[in-house]
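re: ur question from earlier - yeah i can do the single chain one, its not a big deal. heres the input i used so u can compare w yours
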Amino acid sequence: MTFQHFVRRLHLYLGMFLLPWFLMYGISSVPFSHNQWFGGPPRWTIRVDRAYELEVPPEANLREVGGRILADVGLSGAFGASRPNERQINVYRMDFLQPARVTYFLDQKRVLAEEREFHWPQFLTGLHARGGFEQDSMLNDAWGVTVDVICVAMVLWIATGIYMWWQLPACRGWGWLALGGGVGSFVMFLLAL
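and the output i got, formated as tokens:
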């Protein structure tokens, strides 16, 4: 097998491997840009709304506090926690199918936990934006590693495509036009926005 034959096969099989990921990232980009096409916002159902007290000093570790609050309302899974002000802590449980949000109102000594109904735009944007290594689970780490592998595969796919294009002198003019158009539009938006 020659190097050129190897590059062609690598490009072919990388493209097949990347197909579901390109489809997911391509399709999930539509709700980011055109959310108005998908109806109103998703509905949230109240799961817990009760008195709750947890001492949270200003310098508290929000990761630990968020985990405790989530467990106290009977939820588990990957989550993020934030403190928008001194009176409130928000915990968001990430789940592709049924995410939840928990709000702890410190001044009211009250916790509100809501689950979101399945909503296609939110499902797709959740796939697109899901991070990896911040959570304490093997499955979340596996997602992060897989996305890293996908990124490397994309770079290899691009490199093999450029190599094959350069091996076809008759196609170089159109290739330069396509490459210039892509780079030019990217730089224009990068500088203008």
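DSSP finds five helices and five strands in the chain. not sure if urs matches, ping me
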